[in-house]
Amino acid sequence: MELKVSLDVGSEADEIEIERLSRNLRGELLDLDVDDVRHLPDSAPANAKAGDGAIWTTLLVTLSASGGVITTIIAAINGWLSRRQEPVTVTVQFGDNSITLPNATDEERRLLLDAFIAQQERH
Predict the structure, then answer these.
(1) 3-state DSSP call for residue 39?
(2) The CA-based dihedral angle spanning residues 7, 10, 15, 16, taken in that order and rounded to the nearest 10 degrees
(3) Does the CA dihedral 106-102-28-123 come out positive or negative?
(4) Can you give the pTM of this predicted structure?
(5) Are 29 and 5 in contact (CB under 8 A)?
(6) Distance CA 92, CA 61 (A)
(7) Which of the ends of the chain has fewer CB neighbours closer than 10 A, N or C?
(8) DSSP element (H, E) containing 18
(9) pLDDT, tens only, 68-97
(10) Main-chain dihedrals φ then ψ at residue 58, nearest 5 degrees
């Protein structure tokens, strides 16, 4: 199973900052029960215009097991976000499902995660 983890760091971050954030998140994900985490070529959101400045960095997370690991990965990303001072939004996509963890308060992200996990458990 593969998950795509995309970081939206906005227009304020430079290439060095983007690389630092991406490597930092990759390191944290590698500490989990995953097979691999690798960088995919950068791409802009579909609605971005040339020169928009919005940069996305995408990581591909490969894992053998799915039971509970996705929840663990999303929780780890949420924890990583809560320790960031810079504004970062992360989208996790697996199959037809995705969740975007915005630059929001810990409580707002927790409520979003709770709703998403409850929805996944119903399916």
Answers:
(1) strand
(2) -80
(3) positive
(4) 0.78
(5) yes
(6) 10
(7) C
(8) helix 15-30
(9) 778 888 889 989 998 888 888 999 888 888
(10) -115, 135
